[in-house]
Design a protein that fits this description.
The chain is mainly alpha-helical. Helix content is 54%, strand content 7%. Among the domains are: 134 residues, no CATH class; 46 residues, no CATH class; 81 residues, no CATH class. The strands form four sheets. The protein has a three-stranded antiparallel β-sheet with strand order 3-4-5. A two-stranded antiparallel sheet has the order 1-2. The chain has a two-stranded antiparallel sheet with strand order 6-7.
Length: 401
């Protein structure tokens, strides 16, 4: 492959784009044409990733006076240095991962998927094929979570990784092009989870107040308002009163870990320890946070949440925890949103009882589609396809027996 060959291909695509008049594309073809261009984009991104390490070896970045190959690629590609560093790292990694490289050459993976899979498969090469299959059958959020689990299971010293992340903790403020002020925070999973759980009761209160007033906003808006409420809150000092009484946060974290590893104090093989809905943590952190409470919980607080029938409209506390444990994300297989709302699969008004098998978590958007626009999950349990009323898989369209 030569530069001259690539210029010919580039000119052919350039002519196609110059002649593109969106209004002239038939509505019936618009999506298919878009998908074709997306495939071209994936193929081009795959080629750029495969070539990035070669560009580094070529050394043109030194002659150009760049500080690094990544900075040179960022300038050539009109992107950020961070994006260029990720692409360069992926280029080095896929050179040792033939399964990933072959899938890239077929245009079946986006650059985001490639970076996630290559990073995790480098930590555990035996997982490469499995991660590629995951990438092709699920969304980016689920893929990243699975890659994170894979890296955690392959980490030879998770405590050292935890200490490094903690030492790199940071909060950064920046102003974007529109004048919006942005906040970015990074830290260990357990410490950031404490912030999330401190905000949760405030978010619920704001949501309920907005619902009563007929206002509907994304959950992220309520989280922002809750964060401002915490910032404006003045703690008691001596006899002074608080400006605003806030609900006392209850930091509830659900840990998913093997009981044997909890007792042993370390993970083995592919075992992982994670905070449900957040991410992996070392077993030492789980033991420190839980202490002996996990033993007491298992022995003295066992509740049959699977078979219990609750006559109230809302689930019991035990049912909520069980649902969060098994389904922390939206039930729509195409959605990865957390912060879900619990919905009755079969309307509560029909049976006036709440059982775990009839509950599905939804993000606010999908809950609205189900409640007000007739969308529904296909038959089954767990995360599954979420379809509009005219889809043949919709339960209403099931042929009579």
């Amino acid at each position: 492959m030569s530069a001259a060959t690539m210029r010919i291909a580039e000119h052919a695509i350039a002519r196609m784009v110059r002649g593109l008049v969106p209004e002239d594309v038939l509505l019936g073809d618009a999506t298919e044409v878009w998908v074709s261009f997306d495939r071209i984009e994936r193929l081009a991104a795959a080629a750029k990733t495969l070539l990035a390490a070669r560009v580094e070896v070529a050394g043109d970045w030194k002659r150009a006076g760049a500080r690094s190959a990544a900075d040179h690629l960022a300038k050539l590609g009109a992107t950020t240095a961070l994006a260029a560093r990720r692409s360069l790292a992926a280029s080095r990694q896929v050179a040792e991962l033939p399964v990933v490289a072959e899938t890239m050459r077929s245009g079946l993976l986006s650059s985001v998927q490639v970076e996630a899979v290559a990073d995790a498969a480098t930590a555990d090469p035996s997982a490469a094929a499995r991660l590629v299959r995951t990438a092709r059958t699920t969304n980016v959020g689920e893929l990243r979570a699975e890659c994170l689990r894979t890296k955690a299971a392959a980490d030879p010293d998770p405590d050292a990784t935890y200490r490094r992340i903690d030492s790199e903790r940071r909060v950064r403020f920046s102003t974007d092009a529109e004048g919006g002020r942005n906040l970015y925070a990074r830290g260990t999973v357990d410490r950031v989870s404490r912030i999330e759980h401190a905000l949760q009761p405030l978010v619920e209160g704001l949501f309920q107040a907005a619902w009563a007033e007929g206002r509907h906003e994304p959950r992220e808006a309520y989280v922002f308002d809750a964060l401002v409420m915490l910032a404006e809150h003045e703690p008691e000092s001596g006899t002074e009163q608080k400006k605003q009484r806030l609900p006392k946060p209850a930091a509830m974290m659900l840990f998913h870990l093997p009981f044997e590893a909890m007792v042993r104090g370390k993970l083995e093989g592919e075992q992982t320890c994670e905070i449900v809905g957040a991410g992996p943590v070392p077993i030492s952190v789980a033991r420190e946070l839980l202490g002996e409470s996990i033993l007491k919980l298992v022995i003295t607080k066992g509740v049959d949440v699977v078979n219990v029938v609750h006559l109230g409209r809302g689930p019991t506390a035990a049912q909520k925890i069980a649902l969060l444990w098994t389904s922390p994300r939206c039930s729509n297989i195409e959605c990865s949103r957390m912060g879900v709302e619990i919905d009755h699969n079969q309307p509560w008004a029909d049976k006036h009882q709440t059982v775990l098998a009839n509950l599905d978590p939804f993000c606010g958007h999908d809950h609205d589609l189900k409640t007000n626009h007739g969308w529904s999950l296909v038959e089954g349990t767990g995360r599954r396809a979420f379809v509009p009323p005219d889809d043949p898989r919709h339960p209403r369209n099931k042929p009579p027996p």
